[in-house]
Design a protein that fits this description.
Length: 349
């Protein structure tokens, strides 16, 4: 039996994945990829059901104290006009999300200490008092006390991608972070009872299949409830402007293998993948993904949250996004989830 079939079989029959098994799966060629994607789709169906969950994302500040080499929001990017939404503007964006029927709102920003722990707690409290919405935060590395305050204020989930667990690569890409400290944050989040999301970029300069296997194994070990896996996309105003983007096939393979190793996690069809390739969202939903994150950032600032260029959701009005999603899901015969889509809530079977 060819190595890929053997690796797939052993994973599907319960073998603990290791680096070798994962790198074998990631090496699937054009002929083998359909089998890999079909297996991931089957595991997705059994693990999290047919329904696709929507998470409305509100990008409330593009100020960042960090200088990640890949990201357009890095503090040294002086050509980016910066914005901060007021509490009222954020609440209005959440009002829109609630009115459109979303059950989760994701509040994301650069690492912007302008918003104190108390400010963010107040925001969570206002949202929770007003709506029956799940609240996800994604505001980077903060201290245990801040995470605790927000959890107590009612935050349900937190997204903090490890980006890469290759220590040397991490240090190069995130010069003012430490891998150990970022992983510590993830452990705190788990300990505090957040549904915790991690994830990695695919196609980073200097990355290899072993690095990617390390990311998948890390997320499995941490038992993440969510994993965001998308291609690296070079941004013209960053030191990585001349680097090649992550490839479509490798991104889909990484997503599919992540699904095989994380049967019950929520995996988004990322905006980065739709930006890389029109139709990327559909391909991801057929290869293990079960979440879409439509952009509810107010239109007047949306083009300034430019972590990478040509973000596919920049100009699209949320109404149009929802129409497109409904059309796509009808074509795929996948229902839209009606519940909050908390971890391990299986719907739409
Ligand atoms: N500041 C927070 C959250 C905002 S950045 C943090 O860093 O955790 C959100 C995500 O954007 C990051 O986790 C990273 O994976 C992604 N990102 C940033 N620059 C990117 C690029 N050039 N290509 C693809 N994804 C990118
Ligand atoms: Fe800041 Fe996050 Fe971008 Fe890094 S990835 S520069 S922390 S917004």
């Amino acid at each position: 039996m060819p190595a890929l079939d053997a690796a797939l079989n052993s994973l599907l029959t319960g073998e603990q994945p290791g680096v070798e098994l994962i790198t074998t799966l990631l090496s699937a060629d054009a002929e083998q990829m359909p089998a890999l994607f079909a297996a991931a789709n089957g595991v997705r169906r059994l693990g999290v059901g047919e329904a696709v969950h929507l998470r409305a994302i509100v990008e409330f500040s593009n100020y960042c104290r960090k200088n990640c080499l890949y990201c357009g929001l890095r503090r040294d990017n002086k050509s980016l006009p910066r914005y901060r939404l007021t509490e009222q503007e954020i609440i209005e964006a959440v009002d829109n999300a609630a009115a459109m029927g979303f059950r989760t709102v994701v509040l994301q920003s650069g690492e912007d200490l302008y918003y104190t722990a108390a400010n963010i707690a107040r925001l969570i409290d206002r949202i929770k008092n007003k709506y029956d919405l799940a609240v996800t935060l994604s505001v980077g590395e903060r201290g245990y006390a801040d995470y605790k305050t927000w959890r107590e204020a009612g935050a349900d989930r937190y997204l903090l991608k490890q980006e890469t667990v290759d220590e040397k690569l991490f240090q190069y890409l995130k010069p003012d972070s430490r891998l150990r400290e970022r992983l510590q944050c993830l452990h705190w989040l788990k300990e505090l009872g957040y549904q915790t999301g991690s994830g990695n970029m695919v196609g980073l300069p200097g990355q290899n299949p072993t690095t990617l296997a390390g990311d998948i194994l890390f997320m499995r070990e941490l038992e993440v409830e969510m994993a965001g896996i998308g291609p690296f996309l070079p941004h013209h105003d960053t030191p990585l402007k001349d680097a090649a983007p992550g490839g479509l096939e490798l991104t889909l393979k990484t997503l599919a293998v992540a699904r095989l190793c994380l049967p019950r996690a929520h995996l988004p069809a990322t905006t980065a993948l739709s930006t890389l390739t029109p139709g990327g969202r559909e391909l991801a939903l057929k290869s293990g993904a079960n979440v879409i994150m439509p952009n509810l950032t107010p239109l007047h600032v949306r083009d300034k949250y430019l972590i990478y260029p040509q973000k596919s959701d920049i100009i699209e009005h949320p109404d149009r996004t929802l129409k497109n999603i409904n059309k796509l899901l009808a074509e795929l015969a996948r229902p839209l989830a009606k519940d909050h889509g908390h971890a391990c809530q299986i719907t739409g079977r």
